[in-house]
Amino acid sequence: MDILQTPPQSATKRVVAAFDFDGTLSRGVSGIRFYGHLLGPFRSVWMAVRHSIDAFCFTFRLGHEASMDRCNRHVFRGRRAEDVQRAATYFSENILPRHLLPEGMARLQAHLARGDRCVIVTRGFAWCVTPWALKTGVHDVIASHLEIAPEGVLTGRLTEVSCDGEQKRVRLLNLLGDRSQWEVHAYGDSPGDHEMFATADHAFIRRGDEFVPWRPEPIRTKKKTALRA
User: Fold this and answer.
1) CATH code of the domain containing 135
2) Is residue 145 part of a domain?
3) What digits encode the pLDDT tens for the residues 27-50?
4) Predicted confidence band at 56 (pLDDT cuts at 50, 70, 90)?
5) Nearest CA to 145 among 159, 155, 156?
6) SS3 category, 16
7) Nearest to 146, CA basis, from 87, 212, 205
8) Within 6-139, where are the H helices?
9) How much is the pLDDT for 50?
10) pLDDT-wise least confident of 91-105, 192-206, 208-222
11) Over the chain, what is the mean pLDDT?
12) pLDDT tier at 228 (50, 70, 90 boundaries)?
């Protein structure tokens, strides 16, 4: 049985499979997990106390851009970029693989085996995801990048807004170029993936241990009530 159940629809178009990472290929939020790896147990507890609301909002996308910015400043500002990148590579190769989701990985491996182009599209940190992706056989990663000051230390900011929501759609289309040349398959698990889904030919959202076809929610209109004379 073909796990993809979506054979290419066109002989003239190449297939590209775009995968969200957190919640689609991996359990939890890789950025929060990397904070803990970088800080260690004692500083992680202090961060959990000081930034518990921000971490919660970052995780569940409740004004998460500002929350993510505050968390990033607390964790990264003033650290040497090469040290953080080295820690991120270790995290990517040794810790991240422990949290992979078998159902998401099965879809990714099926696309790779079929010869499709695969892209990771995530708000996670590029330094944390890219080494793992390259070892897995995925050569395109669209992710969030940490800003480096001229002296080689991190500012605690991102180089641009995080890769989430509308940014996933925009950056994926920028990578592909001529959209008409591609048959796009998209996989995700949350509202942050809906804009990417909307531009795909085939979109699947994770529900429990399986992926089901995604459909945009119908626009609800309020019924007008007649005024009584």
Assistant:
1) 3.40.50.1000
2) yes
3) 999 998 999 999 987 676 656 656
4) low
5) 159
6) strand
7) 87
8) 30-50, 52-60, 64-76, 81-90, 102-114, 126-136
9) 63
10) 208-222
11) 88
12) very low
Highest mean pLDDT among 51-65, 67-81, 194-208: 194-208
Enter the tokens of residue 74. 């607390």
pLDDT value, residue 226: 45
Asked if 68 contacts 165 with a C-beta cutoff of 8 angstroms, the reply is no
Overall residue count recorded for the chain in this entry = 229
Question: Which 8-state DSSP code applies to residue 77?
Answer: T
Q: What is the pLDDT of residue 49?
A: 56
Q: Can you say whether the dihedral through the CA atoms of 199, 144, 34, 98 is positive or negative?
A: positive
Cα–chain-centroid distance for residue 27? 12
Task: Give residue 24's domain range.
Answer: 14-213
Nearest to 34 by CA among 47, 25, 19: 47
Task: Please state the domain count of the chain.
Answer: 1
Cα 115 to Cα 9, 48, 137, 140, distances in angstroms: 15, 43, 11, 14
CA distance 204 to 185: 8
Of 102, 147, 106, 101, the C-alpha closest to 126 is: 147
Rounded-to-integer distance, Cα 205 and Cα 110, Å: 17
- 229 part of a folded domain: no
Residue with token string 């795909």: 200
Residue pointed to by tokens 């890769």 = 163
